[in-house]
Write a structure and sequence with these properties.
0% strand, mainly alpha, single chain, 2 domains, 11 helices
Length: 313
């Protein structure tokens, strides 16, 4: 717990940080900061004080000074805005749904929906489609959060480690809940031991540790890439002002690429974790086989091809 030993920022630095926060964050703290500050001091601050006392440090050394101006962190405000924007963007793109004449927004959404559905079927199987709402929610929310830093008055909430760890922990809790729900607590733990019983005593602790590391690896990967991208853009723009102030415009394609790639990596890993704990039930397997048979019969030439193969064998 060495990071608890870092010295706290002084009041002047903390006040300067509060002044540099986006105007939306300052506005929120101006009207709600006092209420949040009183809530923290009455309820959360005493708990954190007892907890950090075990490590010979204080909440101020970890979180910084408690003030009404910074009671609601910028990443909290930005993440709430990202949630609202995600719903609004989906609603706007959806428009008026039509099968005959879909609009550009509907077609854009369909591309994303079909891409995620295809990944779920390829990685998890036909039963993976029941996880589509959660996985698609991760995709949209993380992508919107990643892209927010490209617009004035906003910052990317995924450039804060608290947000990325929360997302990683959410994915971790979800796939473990699915594993326990479908296999039971014993069956879920049993799969960590692997299929070979005589080395299960070695595989189980390794897999257990690996599973507990996953939320941190998801969080650190997402945070590191978004934080580094913002730092690179900010550093380049300050190299030779005012000539380099336009540099972020040329780096914007790279930022957009990073935003999409990190969204893809997060949902890909989440689906891989789900594939380890989710298995197709007997009923679902029979329905899938029946669907494949019907599709094979309906496809022209499919039956003749199968018959030819059987005859040749």
């Amino acid at each position: 717990m060495f990071w608890f030993q870092e010295p706290a920022a002084n009041g002047a630095e903390h006040a300067e940080e509060a002044e540099q926060a986006p105007i939306i964050v300052q506005f929120v703290n101006h009207y709600f900061g006092e209420w949040a500050y009183r809530f923290e001091m009455n309820y959360t601050y005493p708990l954190w004080t007892k907890f950090f006392a075990k490590f010979n440090t204080t909440p101020e050394a970890v979180f910084g000074p408690y003030t009404p101006e910074t009671a609601i962190p910028w990443y909290t405000v930005m993440f709430v805005i990202a949630c609202i924007l995600s719903v609004v963007i989906i609603w706007i793109l959806k428009g008026r749904l039509s099968e005959d004449e879909p609009g550009y927004g509907q077609q854009t959404l369909e591309v994303g929906v079909l891409a995620v559905r295809g990944m779920l079927e390829d990685i998890i199987g036909p039963q993976g489609l029941k996880y589509f709402p959660v996985v698609m929610t991760f995709a949209v929310l993380i992508l919107v959060s990643n892209l927010m830093g490209l617009f004035p008055l906003f910052m990317s909430p995924t450039a804060a480690v608290s947000v990325t760890f929360a997302l990683g922990l959410s994915s971790f809790l979800y796939y473990n809940w699915i594993g326990i729900k479908e296999n039971g607590i014993v069956g879920h733990l049993k799969h960590l031991a692997g299929p070979i019983w005589w080395i299960s005593w070695l595989i189980f602790p390794i897999e257990l540790i690996s599973n507990f590391i996953r939320p941190f690896s998801l969080g650190i990967r997402l945070f590191g890439n978004l934080f580094a991208d913002e730092k690179v853009v900010n550093t380049v723009s300050q190299l030779a002002p005012p000539w380099t102030w336009v540099a972020p415009l040329f780096l914007m394609p790279l930022s957009i690429f990073v935003a999409f790639i990190q969204t893809f990596v997060f949902i890909l890993l989440s689906q891989l974790y789900l594939s380890e704990v989710s298995h197709e039930s007997h009923e679902e397997h029979e329905e899938h086989d029946e669907h494949e048979v019907h599709r094979g019969v309906s496809e022209p030439g499919h039956g003749q091809l199968d018959e030819a193969v059987v005859t040749a064998s």
